[in-house]
Inverse folding.
C-alpha cells in the first residue's frame, strides 16, 4: 500500500474529537433531543388518562406527519417494521411471492417481507446513494425474469416478483426516478422503506411520496422519536383506509359490537408515544439544521485526508444526514475494524454498516443478483455520531423568519 | 315469558347508577388510574433521554412482573398480541398446524395463531369460568383425532393440532387442572392467554404459570397499562432467552456488528412505556382491592333480580375481576341489546362479549367442535364499567401492614 494513502485510526479519532468537542465525555451514535414540549404533551396524556389506543395525539401526529412530508395520508403504527409489513401486504405481496430488497439494509427490511410469507430477493447497491442500483437491477431482471400477464416472473425460481422495497440508506434518497422506472417496466409495486429518511427530499419532493406506500420509523435512534413507533405514508385514500383498518385489528365501526372482517393486527401507536412524537415533530426544522451543520463540519474535517472520505448527499437530493458516514478506500478496508476499535475505545460510538442480508443465515438461500458493490461497501463503511445537538457549535442561528 | 322473570332495561340502568354513584357523569368501561409514581418515572425517561429500546425501566418492569406473578421469567413486549405470537412460535407452532383456541375470545387470540401460518381450531366454553370446556374438548378430541408419534392429528383435516391457548375470560381463571390434563393426554403445548388475568390466581398460583409460555397485556383498558404493551411469562430459562432474542430482531450480542441468526421481530417494549408500567405495578394490590370491592357491590346489587345474574369468580379461583359481567337467563337473551342501548344512552358504558370467532368471516372455515354453550353465552353477556376507582366508595381502607 502506498504509505501516503494509508489511514491512521488514531488520526481519525483525533479528528472526531475535534469535531465533537466533547473531551472525554462519551458520545453515542445517535441520541434523541427532548428540548420542546415533550413533557407538556406526555403529562397531558397522564392527566387525561388517555395513554393507549384512544386519545387525540395519534390523529394529531398523523396530521402533522402528512403536512410535513407532503403525503396525503399518514397512519401511525407501533414501529417501522410493522409499518413496512402493512405496506407490503397492501402493495399486494402474498405468501410465496418474491420481493426485491437491498442486500445492504437493516434486517427489518427483509424480515417484513418474511412476515408476509414472501421471500426477499437481494439487490446490489450503487455508490451515489448506497441504495439499490436501478440500472444494474434492470439488466438483471431483463436476463432472469419474464412478464406473464403483467406479473414479473422469476424464471430461475418460478415465483412472481411482486414488489420492490427502496430503502434510503442513512437518510440519503435512492435514485427514485430510475427505481420507479424499473418498477414500472417490470410490474413491481414500489414500496419505500423511509425509516431513516424523514426530512430527506428527492428533487424537492419528500421521500415516501414515490412508493405506493412508504414506511417511517420513530425508534429512539431516529431523527425524531416516539420511543418506539412508525408510520405508513400513502397518497391513495383507499390504501390509507385499509392501512388504518389493518393496524387496528380490522374492527368495523359499531357502537359496541366486536366485528372484524379480516385477520388484522394490533399495530396502532399508543397515544402516549404519539404525544412525544408531536413534540418532536415541532422541532424538525431545528434538528435538520443542526444535523446539516454537523455533516458539513465532518465533511470539511475529512476533506483533506487520503484513503477515506465523508459520504455526501446525492447530487439530486437534500438529505437529513440521519447517520453521518465515512467510506474507506478499497486499499484501506482492512482498517475499518481498527478504526471502530480506536474510536469506541475513546468513547466515540461508531459502527459498521449492517451485515449484508446475503450473509445472514436465514437469507442464505434467498435469490440474489451479483452483489459486488454492496459487498465492497460493507467492508468500508463507518457511521459517525450524528445526534442533532452535536451540530450546535456549527449551526447558524435560527433565521428570524423576516427574510 | 313469565312476566315475573322479565328483566327491565331501565331497572338495570337504575341499579348501575346507584352502584356507580356518578350522577350524569359518563362512566367508561375501564379507564386507567395514574395515582402513583407515573409522572416521576416517565419524566425520568425524558430527562435521561432513554425512551426507546435502551433504558433501565424495561428490565425493572420485567423483574417486577416476574416477582408479582411468581413466574421465573418475564419478557416485555410491544403488546399482548405480539407476546402471544411469540409464545405460540416458541411452543412449536408452525405453518399448517392447528391450534385450539376458545370461540369465545377477543380476536387477537385467533389472529396470533394466523400470524404463525397456523389455523385456529375453535373450542366451546363451560359456564363456571367462560373458558374452554376441558371435558367436552377431551370427548371431541377422542372422537376426531389420533396420536401419531406423540402428535395429535386431526383426522378430519389431516393436520397436526400442535397447541392449545387457554384464555382467562374477563380475568376469571379457566379450569387449568383439567385443561392441563387434556393437553398432556393429547400432546398439545399449553399456552395461556393471560391478557386479562394479571392478578388472578388459580388455586393460589398466579395465572400464567401453567402454560409452557403465557402472554400478558397492558393495553389501556387492562388492570395496569403501559399505553400499549404486553409480556411473555415462562418458567423455562431457555424459552425466556429465546423470547428475548426473538422480540429483539434475533440480534447476537456484539460490540458493533449487526448479526442476526433468524427471522426475528421488533417487539420489544419501549423504555417510556415500561416506566409507566413500573409505576402501575406498584399499585396492583390497591387496584385488586378496589376492583374486588366493586365486584362485590355489583354482586349484591343484582342478587335479588330475576332473569339476570352477576357472574362470580369460579369456586377454585381468585379473580382480578378485570371486567365485571352480567349474564341474562336464556329467556331474557333478547333484552341484551335493549339493555346495552339504555345503559349506553345514559352514559354508562357497557358492552356485549366479543363476536364468536366462528361467526367472523376470516374464521368461517376454521375447524370447530360443537359450540352451543359459547353460542348461548354470546347472546347473554353484558360487561359493566370496571375501573378500579369505581370501587373506592366500597373498599375497606388499606391494611396498616401491622397484622
Amino acid at each position: 500500500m502506498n504509505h501516503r494513502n494509508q489511514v491512521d485510526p488514531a488520526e481519525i479519532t483525533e479528528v472526531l474529537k475535534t469535531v465533537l468537542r466533547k473531551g472525554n465525555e462519551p458520545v453515542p451514535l445517535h441520541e434523541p433531543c427532548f428540548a420542546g414540549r415533550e413533557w407538556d404533551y406526555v403529562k397531558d396524556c397522564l392527566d387525561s388518562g388517555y395513554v393507549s389506543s384512544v386519545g387525540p395525539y395519534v390523529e394529531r401526529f398523523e396530521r402533522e406527519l402528512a403536512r410535513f412530508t407532503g403525503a396525503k395520508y399518514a397512519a401511525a403504527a407501533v414501529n417501522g417494521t410493522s409499518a413496512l409489513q402493512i405496506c407490503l401486504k397492501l402493495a399486494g405481496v402474498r405468501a410465496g411471492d418474491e420481493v426485491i430488497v437491498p442486500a445492504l439494509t437493516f434486517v427489518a427490511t427483509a424480515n417484513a417481507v418474511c412476515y408476509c410469507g414472501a421471500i426477499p430477493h437481494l439487490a446490489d447497491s450503487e455508490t451515489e446513494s448506497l441504495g439499490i442500483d436501478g440500472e444494474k437491477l434492470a439488466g438483471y431482471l431483463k436476463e432472469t425474469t419474464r412478464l406473464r400477464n403483467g406479473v414479473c416472473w422469476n424464471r430461475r425460481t418460478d415465483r412472481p416478483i411482486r414488489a420492490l422495497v427502496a430503502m434510503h440508506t442513512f437518510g440519503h434518497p435512492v435514485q427514485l426516478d430510475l427505481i420507479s422506472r424499473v418498477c414500472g417496466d417490470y410490474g413491481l409495486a414500489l414500496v419505500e422503506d423511509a425509516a431513516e429518511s424523514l426530512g430527506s427530499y428527492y428533487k424537492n419532493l419528500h421521500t415516501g411520496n414515490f412508493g405506493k406506500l412508504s414506511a417511517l420509523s420513530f425508534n429512539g435512534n431516529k431523527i425524531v422519536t416516539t420511543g418506539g413507533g412508525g408510520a405508513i405514508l400513502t397518497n391513495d385514500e383507499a390504501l390509507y383506509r385499509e392501512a388504518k383498518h389493518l393496524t387496528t385489528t380490522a374492527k368495523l365501526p359499531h357502537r359496541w359490537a366486536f366485528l372484524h372482517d379480516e385477520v388484522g393486527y394490533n399495530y396502532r401507536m399508543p397515544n402516549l408515544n404519539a404525544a412525544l412524537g408531536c413534540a418532536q415533530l415541532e422541532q424538525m426544522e431545528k434538528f435538520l439544521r443542526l444535523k446539516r451543520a454537523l455533516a458539513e463540519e465532518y465533511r470539511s474535517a475529512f476533506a483533506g485526508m487520503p484513503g477515506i472520505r465523508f459520504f455526501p448527499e446525492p447530487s439530486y437530493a437534500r438529505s437529513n444526514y440521519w447517520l453521518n458516514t465515512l467510506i474507506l478506500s478499497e486499499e484501506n478496508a482492512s482498517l475499518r475494524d481498527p478504526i471502530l476499535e480506536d474510536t469506541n475505545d475513546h468513547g466515540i460510538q461508531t459502527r459498521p454498516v449492517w451485515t449484508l442480508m446475503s450473509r445472514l443465515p436465514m437469507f442464505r438461500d434467498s435469490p440474489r443478483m451479483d452483489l459486488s458493490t454492496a459487498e465492497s461497501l460493507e467492508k468500508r463503511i463507518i457511521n459517525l455520531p450524528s445526534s442533532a445537538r452535536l451540530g450546535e457549535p456549527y449551526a447558524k442561528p435560527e433565521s428570524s423568519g423576516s427574510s
In short: The domain at 38-281 of chain A is CATH 3.40.640.10 (Aspartate Aminotransferase; domain 2). The first helix of chain A runs from residue 9 to 20. The first strand of chain A starts at residue 73 and ends at 77. Chain A has a mean pLDDT of 96.
